């Protein structure tokens, strides 16, 4: 299983346009301004292009596509137009057309690193990792300081199982951009596999960039839990449920720590109940809550929870053994 699900960055910043005259005391919206410009000149390719990018941010993809087709009919000599079209095709899962649009961009501007890196990311997406590496290297030959190039290379190496070179590229990524959160996350993931001391620092670096990143907090909590730093783990899981109250895994892990390490079965029941509240079909949480009730000699309630676990997972052997153990 991949340890990271890659997400493309589709949109570039939309240019600032004049708001135009006020209507009823309020400035015209960007869309109104663009509509006015296009209404006066339907062949205004820059305005059509800006409107298409605005539609992209608003997830109005058919409208964006219509504008971009018109743009390229008017002017097919501008590289940024083909980049926007490629972004749109990627969103529409038309990777072949996106590839063609990016290749056209590079034909027009051979040193366009944005297009080259988008091609690298596209090959990463379609699992052609060597080409992802090759295109990343092509971009880095033009500009050796591109953190995105090193990051994409790192992801390609990660997917093919070369964690050493993946780690090297992620380290170079954060050297070039100290705020590259996902690179720190992947450094932490790689380090955690071997339980390296730097694991904690990598995850903390990511959290310094975005303290609300629930995924990174969970990974840090797991690292603490694996190393039996249970109070640190509980702190991270508590932070998670404050940010995301319905995070079933954080509730479950707090219940597990209370059950296994602290022998606090009432607290275990509380957290497993919260996990069930987040996912009413959470068989493992029903089973663990049943174990807590069993420890507290509340056999009827333990029986009910073991049976609920089996209702949602009929092959749950531990739940079957639980029923046998309590004589049911």
Describe this structure in words.
With 328 residues, the chain is an all-alpha fold. It has a domain of 66 residues: Alpha Horseshoe (Serine Threonine Protein Phosphatase 5, Tetratricopeptide repeat). The chain has 18 helices and no strands. Helix 3 runs antiparallel to helix 4, helix 5 packs antiparallel against helix 6 and helix 10 runs antiparallel to helix 11. The longest helix is centred in the N-terminal third of the chain and has 14 residues. The two termini are 39 Å apart.
What is the name of the CATH superfamily of one domain?
Tetratricopeptide repeat domain
Q: How many distinct beta strands?
A: 0
Which word captures the global form? Answer: elongated
Strand content: under 5%
Major β-sheet, in short?
A: none
Proportion of helical residues:
over 70%
Number of helices: 18
Spell out the blueprint of helices and strands.
Elements: H1 30-40, H2 45-57, H3 61-74, H4 79-91, H5 95-108, H6 113-125, H7 129-142, H8 147-159, H9 163-176, H10 181-193, H11 198-209, H12 214-226, H13 230-243, H14 248-260, H15 265-278, H16 283-295, H17 299-312, H18 317-325
Helix pairs in contact: 1-2, 2-3, 3-4, 4-5, 5-6, 6-7, 6-8, 7-8, 8-9, 9-10, 10-11, 11-12, 12-13, 13-14, 14-15, 14-16, 15-16, 16-17, 17-18
Structural key phrases:
328 residues; mainly alpha; Serine Threonine Protein Phosphatase 5, Tetratricopeptide repeat; 18 helices; elongated
Short description:
With 328 residues, this protein is mostly helical. It contains 18 helices and no strands.
């Amino acid at each position: 299983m991949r340890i990271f699900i890659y997400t493309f960055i589709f949109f570039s910043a939309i240019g600032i346009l004049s708001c135009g005259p006020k209507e009823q005391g309020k400035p015209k919206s960007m869309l109104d301004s663009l509509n006015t410009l296009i209404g006066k000149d339907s062949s205004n390719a820059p305005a059509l292009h800006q409107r298409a990018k605005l539609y992209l941010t608003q997830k109005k993809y058919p409208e964006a596509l219509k504008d971009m087709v018109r743009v390229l009919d008017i002017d097919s000599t501008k590289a940024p137009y083909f980049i926007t079209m490629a972004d749109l095709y990627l969103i529409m899962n038309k990777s072949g057309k996106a590839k063609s649009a990016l290749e056209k961009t590079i034909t027009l501007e051979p040193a366009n690193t944005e297009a080259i890196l988008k091609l690298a990311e596209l090959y990463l997406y379609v699992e052609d990792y060597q080409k992802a590496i090759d295109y990343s290297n092509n971009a880095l030959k033009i500009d050796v300081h591109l953190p995105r190039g090193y990051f994409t290379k790192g992801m390609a190496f990660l997917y093919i199982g070369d964690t050493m070179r993946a780690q090297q590229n992620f380290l170079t990524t954060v050297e070039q951009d100290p705020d590259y959160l996902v690179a720190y996350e992947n450094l932490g993931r790689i380090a955690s596999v071997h339980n390296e001391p730097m694991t904690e620092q990598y995850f903390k670096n990511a959290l310094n960039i975005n303290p609300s990143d629930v995924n990174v907090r969970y990974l840090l909590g797991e690292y603490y839990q694996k190393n039996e730093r249970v109070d640190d783990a509980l702190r991270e899981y508590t932070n998670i449920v404050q940010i995301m109250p319905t995070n079933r895994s954080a509730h479950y892990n707090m219940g597990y720590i209370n059950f296994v390490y602290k022998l606090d079965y009432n607290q275990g029941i509380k957290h497993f109940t919260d996990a069930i509240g987040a996912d009413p079909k959470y068989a493992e949480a029903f089973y663990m809550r049943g174990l807590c009730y069993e420890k507290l000699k509340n056999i009827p309630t333990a029986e009910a929870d073991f049976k609920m676990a089996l209702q949602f997972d009929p092959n749950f052997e531990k739940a079957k053994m639980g029923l046998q153990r309590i004589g049911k």
